[in-house]
Design a protein that fits this description.
The protein has eleven helices and 13 strands. With 331 residues, it is an alpha/beta fold. The chain is elongated, with a radius of gyration of 25 Å. Bound molecules: adenosine-5'-triphosphate.
Length: 331
């Protein structure tokens, strides 16, 4: 189990992590979510003893990282996939790690096999693709067969087969009773992998709950109706005590509406329908809503930035902040 108690990290004026307390239990995958700059990597670095907390503490099965003799046997982590000497082969990189933690050479072959890198084990890391680098990072994390595993954005750069592989790997490790803590920006991927979620924003804890609870609390449902007789529809809904909100493209949406009853109601009033469809807010939307106030970096709306934008509304917010690469820090 990983336990954080009032963990705090300050870099100059930036409060990167702000009195964070939560537990990551064994036996399940815990997802760690937050917008860019929320403090996820800083938190993970403190868990690994790579950054010293300004205040508070973090323990791994009751012990500080610094107290662990051969740390790879207790905790394995993928923080930055490219943290490998470019001139070293995958095999040599793992062998060096194994020897410094008194792990047998045979373990190197085992993890290379487990991550599917056996055939390129003698290639230098500089020639590795992002996906191969991720796999090598995961191999390093698995090397000591540790009880606790921590992955920072593990699916970055992986193809669909690789994503499925890492998802099953994490689930398998959790099912075997390990503690698995994984950060990601991909809510949809988390929904498939994690049973528990910790959400942070601007260094603070926003939510610490089960995935089932998160889905229950955040998935809004509505029925979308499109009709050439909107006035009759609104009248009929009002009479039935239902409220409709305007939806996109001239549609109306009835929150928590029942598809069959709404269809019956329209038929009763002889209202022609061109659409009657259930709508479900995605987890992505729910996550964006939860973290909206904590988002530190804003980009434009995804439309290409052109010199003379016909409408100033979107172009101005992009340019006025003086963004580079669509990232802008607002303090
Ligand atoms: N070494 C550092 N020196 C100064 N500020 C830092 C340092 N590391 C992180 N920060 C700041 O701390 C805050 C949290 O950053 P962190 O990288 O932990 O966030 P994150 O949630 O991992 O973001 P991302 O999703 O973009 O990777 C940011 O404001 C960042 O600029």
């Amino acid at each position: 189990m990983i336990e954080l108690h009032e963990l705090t990290k300050r870099y100059g004026d930036t409060l990167a992590v702000d009195r964070l307390s939560f537990q990551v239990p064994r036996g399940q995958v815990t997802g760690f979510l937050g917008p860019n700059g929320a403090g996820k990597s800083t938190t993970m670095r403190m868990i690994l003893g790579l950054d010293r907390p300004t205040a508070g503490r973090v323990t791994l099965d009751g012990r500080h990282y610094g107290e662990l003799n051969e740390p790879l046997r207790y905790i394995g982590a993928l923080l930055e996939a490219k943290a490998v000497h470019p001139g070293r082969t995958a095999y040599d990189h793992l062998l060096w790690l194994a020897q410094s933690n008194r792990l047998p050479r045979t373990r190197v072959d085992e993890v290379l096999e487990a991550v599917g890198l056996t055939s390129v084990a003698r290639k230098r890391a500089r020639g590795f693709s992002l996906g191969m680098g991720q796999r090598l990072g995961i191999a390093s994390a698995l090397l000591g067969d540790p009880e606790i595993l921590m992955f920072d954005e593990p699916v970055n750069g992986l193809d669909p087969e690789g994503i499925l592989w890492i998802r099953n790997l994490m689930k398998g490790l959790a099912a075997a009773g390990r503690t698995v803590f994984v950060s990601s920006h991909l809510m949809s991927e988390m929904a498939l992998t994690a049973e528990h979620l910790v959400v942070i924003g601007r260094g603070r804890l926003l939510a610490d709950l089960s995935m089932a609870e998160f889905i229950k609390q955040n998935s809004r449902s509505a029925v979308r109706i499109r009709t050439p007789q909107p006035e009759q529809l609104l009248d009929a809904l009002r009479t039935a005590g239902l409220r409709a909100d305007p939806g996109p493209d001239g549609t109306y949406e009835v929150e928590d509406g029942d598809l069959a009853s709404l269809g019956d109601l329209a038929a009763e009033h002889r209202i022609t329908l061109h659409e009657l469809s259930p709508q479900q807010a995605s987890l992505e939307e729910a996550f964006m809503q939860m973290t909206a106030d904590s988002v530190q970096y804003h980009a434009g709306d995804g439309r290409p930035a052109v010199a003379a934008a016909p409408e100033p509304a979107w172009g101005s917010s992009w340019q006025a902040r003086g963004t580079t690469n669509g990232k802008q820090k607002e303090n």
